[in-house]
Amino acid sequence: AAPVGGSVQRLLSWRPLVALGDMSYSVYLIHWPVFVLMMAALGRAQLGTAEAFGAIALSLGLAWLMRRFVDRPAQEHPQGDRIVAKKTLVVVISLALGLAPLYGTRAVLDARRADERAIVAAAPGDPRFPGPTVLGTSDPVDYSDEPIPGPLAVHESWVPDLPEPCPPEHEELLAGTKTNCSALPGADEDSPRVVIVGDSHAQQTITPVAAELADRHGWQVTEYLTGSCAFGIWDAYRDDCVKRNEVVLDLLTEDPPDIVMLQSTQTMQDWAGEIQRPGVQAAIEWLTSLGITVVGVRDNPRSTSDLYECSSERPVDSATGGCVFDQYQYLAELDPAAEFTAIPGFIEIDPTDLYCVDGECYTIIGNVYVYMDNNHINGAYSRAMAPELADRVDTVLGLR
């Protein structure tokens, strides 16, 4: 091998580097549980610079202790009758040091996740987490608490199904379409009926609004939701989606409800190419011809980036924060479904002013994350929007 240059040799023989190399395996074994435990304790998806250096220092300290009191004694005194016992002790201690943090991490994460869930569940009415309701006030705010949901609870932000299953005959008709069919009973069997039909965006945005309306008026609600399957009369949907739409359209035609709620537009990732949902106009025209009131809801912005992960920064005295993006880069200047309001019996609800303010959209509003990923409104925020959107429906229907 070629000789190593003097300056390089001096660097490699520098005592701190030699010591680090000497305990490298201990560092390898210990550092990851230290980092995970620290992130769990702080409730963060990643550590800041100061926390990261602290975790490194703690890892090095624990690794030195392991090297000093576990590895080195076994290496320096390998002879004698107790060699097997010593090696066994080394293995046991090494496993304990590796596995104990693993189980400890799981316990810490589970406890932290439970805390985050509890905070989200108690958020309605909590002045620390007003969500979009703060946009209508000029009161001073103080958001010293971390925004919700936390990183361990965000993936549980899906709006749940309604509490009861659909009739078995509906489930049978929808077999093979991967449709979530669920129902919310009304005040009585003669209560007005509302049907939600669409995809996961309808689930995240419309279901909480329908539930709010049902709570106010005693209405019955049924939902037919299929991932990536919008509601419309159009033959370009994939096979399962075509079947779902045909089955639901037949059910609505045979026994028309009072109201159908659906997504009226579809946004595009990171550009303003928002369009009317394919086939939705034909569906609206058919349903309204049956005497059904159709409530359309405009889609929300979508991105190629994770809108939850992009930033958790916000001033404690500001209603908005996180990432900021131009409304007109993500949404059409005018709601593409607005023209459907010329169809008698159609109502269009546009929630854009609850995501964006004066042309700028935010990913944290009222100390609540607006999104749970790159395109879905998170459940905590959608539930906070529901009363305002229900008010808008009530106003158009003359119920308030």
Description:
The protein is an alpha/beta fold. It has two domains: 6-121, no CATH class; 131-397, Rossmann fold (3-Layer(aba) Sandwich), CATH 3.40.50. The protein is built from eleven helices and 13 strands. The N and C termini lie far apart (87 Å). The model has no long low-confidence stretch (mean pLDDT 88).
Topology at a glance:
Layout lengths: L5 H7 L2 H8 L1 H19 L6 H28 L6 H39 L42 E2 L2 H6 L6 E5 L8 E6 L1 H18 L2 E6 L13 H16 L4 E5 L1 E4 L2 E6 L3 H10 L3 E5 L22 E7 H4 L15 E4 L6 E2 L2 E6 L2 E2 L9 H19 L3
Parallel strand pairs: 3-4, 3-5, 5-8, 8-10
Antiparallel strand pairs: 1-2, 2-4, 6-7, 9-12, 11-12, 12-13
Summarize the structure.
This protein is an alpha/beta fold. It contains 11 helices and 13 strands.
Largest sheet: 7 strands, mixed
Tell me the β content.
15-25%
Rg: 29 Å
Average pLDDT score: 88
